[in-house]
Structure formats: C-alpha cells, structure tokens
Amino acid sequence: MNILIVEDEQLAQERLQLLIKAYDPAINIVGCLESVEETVNWFNTKPHPDLILLDIHLSDGQSFEIFKRVQTPKPIIFITAYENYAVDAFRLFSIDYILKPVTAEALAAAINKYKSLSDIFTPADYRLLMEQLKDTTSTNYRNRFLAKVGQRLFFIPAGDVAYFAADNKIVFLIDREGNRFVINSTMEKLETELNPKDFFRLNRKIIIHADAIDQIKPYHSNRLKLQVKGVPASEEIIISRERVADFKQWADA
Q1: Do residue 150 and residue 34 come from a single domain?
Q2: Across the strands, what pairs with 227?
C-alpha cells in the first residue's frame, strides 16, 4: 500500500510516519508534503497513491483547495484539530475524519476501514459510493427554524435568515428585515446543521448568510467589518482576525 502524507507541522508529520510503520512496516510512504501548492504539483507529476492522509489547515491555505485544481479518485483520511470541517471533508473521497492528536487506535481503525472498502468495491464502485454519500449529506441541512418572540412561535425558512447571533447562552435568529427571534440551539450545533455554501461562522458569536452581506470593509487589527442588509450600520458585525483568510476563501468559492 502506498500512502501520501500532507501535513505542515513537522512533529505531526513525523508522528504519522511512526504510527503508520508501527501499524504495518510494509506500507510505503511515498511522500510527506506541507502545502497546497506542493501537493498540487506532486499530483500533477507523480502516480497517485492508494491512500492520502491529509491535514486541513496547511501552510498556504486549506487542503480543500487542492481538489479544486487536481482530480484524484483516491480515498482520503482527513486529520485536523477542527471538528467543523467534517461535512466539507465528506464531500470529497473521505473515508474517515480524525481529530488531533492522532492516536494509534484511531489511525489503525481508519486504515482498516480503507482496507475493508478496498476489498468490497472496485475503484469505480468506490467513486459511485462516495457520490451517493455526497448526495445524501447535501440534503440533510436545516431548511427552516422554529423561532419565538415572547410566547409566539414562528417558522423561519433558512433562506430568510440574515445571521445568527449568540449572547451569553441565548442564540438569536435575525431575519432579512432585522427582526430578532430566539431559537433553541447552540452555535456549535448550527455549524453542523447549516449549508456551508450559504452560511459562515465569522467569530464565536456570529454565523452569517452569504446573501445577507451588503458590504465588506477593512477594520483595525487586520479584521473585516460587514454591513448586513436590513440591519442598521451602527450594529457592528466583525470577522475575527483568525477567520479572515477562511472567510475570503468561502466568499470566493
């Protein structure tokens, strides 16, 4: 079996190599790469491996960018410190999603899953299976919310949402007209339920709908400020510095 490692942290890269060799010394690690650009070049010039171990945050961007520039039918085990990219990962040929720090048990289980799938499916079958999985997951996003104002309840379609805002432990839904409702949810739960093509988490307190964004302006400390349609300009909606790069990639997708 040929495995390609794409991981920009040297210690994490070395740990993966040790765990793979401990699992099976016969496995051939064909390369250890650190960036989107390096991986794209590798795929364009070398035979593709049997399996890819792929970190999501690389030195020059998210690894999802790789597959916008090259095509490979090879299965992927995603390895990351973040939980909120699972849906994006499974839109690709992902067979597992391991959170850091990687344990020997988690990696062994993922490789065993790859072996089981390889025994059952031909490459064409595997591609079909993953396409079916993508079709299934894409239909599971929330399309409406039960919201309340006082004792009154309302059904709010997802398309009418401007953004969600957290205030202490209360989550508010703000619609396109600026009306504010309370919903029974958390920001973390919403991230897994919302279509990532439409919604983006700007910071700990705000998840916004793309169609609600009116203007994007520079803000101090390398942050960005958004003006939302139907919301007074005095209400500041700020993208945290850590999320600016991801926001730009999302907005340009």
Answers
A1: no
A2: 215
